[in-house]
Design a protein that fits this description.
There is one protein chain. Among the domains are: 133 residues, no CATH class; 29 residues, no CATH class. By secondary structure, the protein is α+β, with helices and mostly antiparallel strands. The chain is built from 20 helices and seven strands. The protein has a five-stranded mixed sheet. The protein has a two-stranded antiparallel sheet with strand order 6-7. InterPro entries: NTP_transf_5.
């Protein structure tokens, strides 16, 4: 008989172990059963920093607000309470803007699927105040992108022009545009794909057919079907190395709803996410005590999924922020290797082929008229070599 899989958690700090224990605990009584030494050994300033880094402060406040001061210092609860209130106000703002925008989009016959934000908080936690979100993410048909952009600009948003493109590679290399409203301090990510390349994913029409309507608003707000939502959340979390536990807590919350196991496994297999789905379930089960329904045990028990789950522990042994540039060199190297390890053979081949496709940097190295951009295909190896040689000289 094979040995049961157990994650190696040796590198986790006392504060991280305590945070995980709080999430696993379903009641105040269970929190009281956590070894007393963990409370005594914990550095509570580090615990608060860790809670905020992992975007778990509102969820933890809701669980810990009634706990005795003999276990948790009152200053810790006070900080979590303050952050909880700030988050609640922000989520209410996002709710209002989401409803306003969707009414406008509906008036212009634009269909939108809301991916995260208040809709996800309501769906998974039953209360928008228990999950953090700093923006609205929505998916629209690619044919409507320009119409959406024009509408947002009319409404006072400005587009972040961080995407540089050549030969229309933006359509598959990237997956969303970002818009900001300075006066409202509002950020919106408009997706035309769920994930950047390399990926295989369902088209908008398929997702729209399986959509659900949120009970969050009297105006119908559409969001992903349960199995599509699971695939989106595991792909998003894995792409970021599960470096924030909030993403893994989302998986725990969703896994404990009644998923259609057969349908989910078909969707994951079709889009090359079976191993990643198994990784997420393994992590959610081992770290957060998530209950996995019987027909999904095979995903979590897969040996490759378990190896990927263990690799993700690298991100939880320290506070890693992949969005803070520059990313430390050792983290950057590890992350690139791990991202490649997540890919199936087909997606690895897709990735290798994508590297041969011209990059905007090639046009910056050797500017050519747009009509001659096709020449960047044969020139790319030489231009890449020139940039690398120039960088080494500096």
């Amino acid at each position: 008989m094979s040995k049961p899989f157990t994650l190696d958690k040796e590198g986790l700090s006392t504060e991280m172990q305590l945070l995980l224990a709080f999430i696993r605990s379903g009641s105040a009584e269970e929190i009281g059963e956590i070894p007393e030494r963990m409370f005594k050994e914990a550095n509570w300033e580090s615990f608060v920093d860790l809670s905020i880094h992992h975007r778990l402060h509102p969820y933890l406040y809701h669980k810990l607000k009634g706990i005795s001061e003999a276990l948790i210092p009152s200053r810790v609860i006070h900080i979590l309470q303050t952050e909880y209130r700030v988050n609640t106000f922000q989520m209410l703002q996002l709710c209002g803007e989401m409803e306003r925008l969707d009414k406008i989009f509906t008036g212009y016959n634009i269909r939108a699927l809301y991916l995260k934000g208040p809709v996800l908080a309501k769906e998974l936690y039953g209360d928008i105040s228990l999950r953090t979100s700093c923006d609205l993410d929505l998916l629209v048909p690619i044919a409507d992108l320009h119409k959406v952009e024009d509408l947002l600009i009319t409404l006072g948003y400005s587009k972040d022009e961080y995407i540089h493109t050549i030969l229309n590679d933006w359509k598959w290399r990237h997956h969303h545009f970002t818009f900001y409203h300075a006066e409202q301090n509002m950020k919106i990510e408009v997706h035309w794909r769920l994930n950047p390349a390399p990926s295989v994913e369902p088209g908008f029409e398929q997702l729209w057919e399986r959509r659900r309507i949120s009970s969050l608003s009297s105006h119908p707000i559409h969001y992903l079907g349960r199995e599509d939502l699971f695939q989106f959340l595991v792909s998003h979390g894995a792409r970021h190395g599960w470096s924030r536990l909030r993403w893994l807590l989302d998986i725990k919350q969703l896994a404990e709803q009644q998923l259609d196991g057969s349908k989910l496994k078909t969707i994951l297999r079709k889009h090359h996410y079976s191993y990643i789905g198994g990784q997420a379930l393994s992590l959610a089960s081992e770290l957060l005590g998530a209950t996995i329904q019987a027909d999904l045990h095979g995903l979590a028990a897969n040996s490759r999924s378990q190896r990927l789950a263990q690799q993700a522990m690298f991100y939880l042994g320290q506070m890693i922020n992949l969005h803070t540039v520059p990313v430390p060199r050792d983290v950057d190297r590890y992350h690139k290797r791990h991202m490649f390890a997540l890919l199936t053979t087909r997606l690895k081949l897709q990735y290798v082929l994508s590297v041969l496709f011209p990059y905007p940097e090639d046009a910056e190295t050797l500017p050519l008229p747009k009509s001659l951009h096709v020449l960047y295909f044969p020139l790319r190896p030489f231009l890449w070599g020139w940039r690398k040689m120039t960088a080494e000289r500096k």
